Amino acid sequence: MYKHHSALGLVTAPTGRSAAEIAHYRPVQPVTLLRPHAATRAARFFAERFPGKSLYAVKANPSPDLLQVLWNAGVSHYDVASIGEVRLVAEVLPDATLCFMHPVKAEEAIAEAYFTYGVRTFSLDTIEELEKIVRATSGGDGTAASDLNLLVRLRVSSAHSKLSLAAKFGAEPAELKQLLMATRQAADAMGICYHVGSQAMSPAAYSDAMERVREAIVDAAVTVDIVDVGGGFPSWYPGMEPPALEQYFEVIHAAFEALPISYSAELWCEPGRALCAEYASVLVRVEKRRGSELYINDGAYGALFDAAHIGWRYPVRLVRDGGSEVKPAAFSFYGPTCDDLDHMAGPFKLPADVGPGDYIEVGMLGAYGCAMRTGFNGFGIEDRVIVDDEPMASLYADEEREQRSNVVKL
Predict the structure, then answer these.
(1) CA dist 251 to 52, 81, 262, 338, Å?
(2) Which of these, 42, 52, 84, lies nearest to 227 by C-alpha position?
(3) What CATH number is associated with residue 272?
């Protein structure tokens, strides 16, 4: 049966539907379309082809439903960045292995993670953070913990990535040797980690970073047990079509094999966007058109935060009864709030005759889009529906490597 929310004009459809079928019911509010099969496919791809261990970066989408999907697909390790994420994943997946990979943590959060939730893996980028971890995980008699996996975060370039993560974290070069040596003394297993930035558009991002890892190991003359290449693995967006992920894996594996590390050292990665981008899209309704500007019922304070604030372009397609034979034109979007900042410049390519009452699917919002929603101005209520049609684009199936048509016929 369909569940009707009379106050909102929303309709919840059963599993096994498509974006086009959901639009038939003329929902008044935005509808998030969930594709568990897409997240499952992405997780299995990493499990089968990445030459090491994959930790899901929870910040990209902390939905309990998604966490369960990834667990069922074989993801057993989770990169958590806060005690809130530690608690969430531990509640949803009590048998998961949690790795606290934020380099700056409250001492109380470290202690709770270690003693209450069994977290043994922590990252750091200063001597002060190392000392904090050692204090927080010590026993009541002051005895230092003997079971810590400690990863020192290097600062590496984000030159190959669309969003930089090179400014905030990473050990200072002048302090790195001392930090690695001190961490080696405190750790049961010591590692080096880094993050090349979000949406890395070239495998060279990882080979360049691995050269920094090599230099650090040689300079400090330490034994390294773990090399964690972090996140940055891309998804498909208009104007940001990356190479095949297999190319990234090949470059990483070759660089890892060439490092001066023991044969038993482990290779890790922390995919976030790459595992969940295809998991969700949003079906929105056009409320008004003003020239090339479309007023839609989701926006900067909803799932389209990145489209507004960093100019991210998402794939879009018109979902209309009978489709449209009109050539596409470039549009920008305004969201539903009263704020001028609720503007997504795009350009978003849609049939030139799009207008009020039409529905548009905005794709690849499983990463960060679902996580950034707010209730600002009283908006933000949206329905969630599981569908089984394919995402607009996919890096995990050959037949979806090219963008689909920008029109869906009902």
Answers:
(1) 13, 27, 19, 47
(2) 52
(3) 3.20.20.10
Sign of the alpha-carbon torsion through 180, 186, 188, 194: negative
Q: Hey, how many other C-beta atoms are within 10 angstroms of the C-beta on 352?
A: 14
Question: Helices H, strands E: what count in the chain?
Answer: 11, 21
Q: What is the mean pLDDT of residues 98-113?
A: 97
pLDDT band (50, 70, 90) for residue 141: confident
Three state DSSP letters for 264-331 = CCEEEECCCHHHHHHHEEEEEEEEEEECCEEEECCCCCCCCHHHHHCCCCCCEEEEECCCCCCCEEEE
Where does residue 139 rank: exposed (0-12), middle (13-18), buried (19+ CB within 10 A)? exposed
Q: How many domains does the chain have?
A: 2
The two structure tokens encoding residue 29: 């509010």
**Residues 304, 253 share a domain:** no
On whether both 29 and 57 belong to a single domain, the answer is no
Side-chain half-sphere exposure of 179, counting CA atoms within 13 A: 23
Q: Which residues of 173-201 are buried (b: 16+ CB within 10 A; e: fewer)?
A: eeebeebbebbbebbebbbbbbbbbbbbb
Same domain? 237 vs 360: no
Question: Could you read off the pLDDT of 39-91 as tens digits, one per residue?
Answer: 999 999 999 999 999 999 999 999 999 999 999 999 999 999 999 999 999 99
Task: Specify whether 44 is located in the same domain as 87.
Answer: yes
**Alpha-carbon distance 322 to 319, whole Å?**
9
Q: Which of 33, 32, 39, 38 is nearest to 54 (CA)?
A: 39
pLDDT at 160: 86
318 and 289 in a common domain: yes
The DSSP secondary structure of 333-348, one letter per residue, reads EE-SSS-TT-EEEEEE
Whole-angstrom Cα distance, residue 70 to residue 34?
13
Residue 282: burial class (beta carbons within 10 Å; 0-12, 13-18, 19+): buried
Where is the domain boundary, 276, 309, 326? 276
Count of all residues that appear for the chain in the document: 410
Structure tokens given for 276: 């969940």
What are the strands, taking DSSP E only, across 68-142? 77-80, 97-100, 121-124
Domain that holds residue 303: 3-35+278-409
Secondary structure of 11-67 as H, E, C letters: EECCCCECHHHHHCCCCCCCEEEECHHHHHHHHHHHHHHCCCEEEEEHHHCCCHHHH
3 state SS of 351? strand
